């Protein structure tokens, strides 16, 4: 099984999975084809793109924050950083046998964590959505924006994601209960 972790936007490094868990931070990405590995990160206004090819059974995650002021972002100067990390993730997947036309993505993060300041989370979320739309990569799920941070776990091969939402006091809220099963009147079949 091959893995790839980017320690910074400039310096790639190989990384061994320990007990199946890989943690990434801002400015990193990780790609794997190992079904026993999952990737974790903590997000506030940052965004994580979880992208995979379900046929090639390879996937990965990145974690980015667009740097700079509102004025710099309008000039697309700040977006180059996000574009770089998105391209590194997509290219890492393609190098391991993924095909661009089969890629599917889930986006997470982009929260407005500090009231009264510019909404960098919304800018990060809008950038990620725009990038995937321009690259014609299908967005099949996720959770963007809001006002709470998130802890994220992503299984790149299966595409499974587990998210824990942080409350205002910076503790993680319990997940919502599963929906109640629907009652069938005998002749229906429910697919889920």
What's this model, at a glance?
This protein has about 190 residues and is of the alpha+beta class.
Note down, in words, how this protein is organized.
The protein is of the alpha+beta class. The protein has one domain: 60s Ribosomal Protein L30, Chain: A. Helices cover 19% and strands 29% of the residues. The relative contact order is 0.18. The model is unreliable at 5-17 and 69-73 (pLDDT under 50).
Count of DSSP strands: 11
CATH topology: 60s Ribosomal Protein L30, Chain: A
Residues in β-strands, percent:
25-35%
CATH class wording:
Alpha Beta
Record keyword descriptors for this entry.
globular, 7-stranded mixed sheet, alpha+beta, 3 helices, 29% strand, 4-stranded mixed sheet, 60s Ribosomal Protein L30, Chain: A, 192 residues
